[in-house]
Design goal:
Layout (H helix, E strand, L loop, with lengths): L2 E7 L6 H11 L3 E7 L6 H4 L10 E5 L5 E5 L4 H13 L4 E4 L14 E3 L1 H8 L8 E6 L5 H8 L5 E6 L6 H12 L5 E4 L6 H11 L3 E3 H13 L1
Parallel strand pairs: 1-2, 1-5, 5-6, 7-8, 7-9, 9-10
Antiparallel strand pairs: 3-4
Helix pairs in contact: 1-8, 6-7
Amino acid sequence: MKKKLGAITIGQSPRSDVTGEMQDVLGETIEIVEAGALDGLSKGEIVQFVPEEGDIVLVSRLRDGSSVKFGERYILPRLQECLTRLESEGAEVIVFICTGKFPATFKSSKLLLYPYTILHAVVPKLTPRSRIGVINPDSDQLKQCLQTWGKDVETVEAVAGSPYGDFQEVLDAAQALKVKDVDVIVMDCIGYTVKMKQAVQEITGKPVILARTLLARVIREMLA
C-alpha cells in the first residue's frame, strides 16, 4: 500500500510542475495528495493580497500557469485549512512546497516539513568559507533573503530571476552569480526546475542546490 504525502502549495493546486519532478525522486511507493492556499479564488481576488511594508513577500503559481506576488499574512488561515483537509485525506506527512519561512502556529497531528528548515540546516554545512549565492524569484525578496540567509552564513550574494517567467531571467541570474566568489548556489524557490538547476551549474561552474529535489530526497529517506 502506498504511503500518502500531503503537499501544500501557497498558490493553487495541483502543482504538477513541482510534484512531477518530486515524484521522480520519491518513487512509486509514495503518493502525493495536494491542496493550495489560493484554491477557489479568482485572480482578481488574489491580486488584492498586495504585500505591505514589513510583509513577507511570497511568489507562487496559479492553476492557469501565471504567477502572482502577495503578502504572507493573507494566506496563513487558508494554509491551516489545507492542513486539516490533507489530514482528513490520510496524509501521513505534510510538506509545504514553498521555501519561505512560516510562523510555528499551525496545528496538525501529522509531521510538518518545511523546505526552509531543511535548506537552512543543510546549505551552511556545504560552504567551507561561509559564502553562498542565492537566486530568488523577485527583486522584492532580496532584502528578506539577505536577512534570513545572513543569519546562517557570513556572505550572501542574492540575485533575482523568476522561475515562472522567461527562462532568460534564470540565465541572467546565473551570469550575475558567475562572477561572485561563492562556494555554493541555492535556488531558493520551489518553482525552480531541474532544467534550470542544470543551466545554472553549466554557467557558473558551481555546485547548485535545488529545493524541490533536496526536499524529495529527505522525504524518500523518511517514507520509502
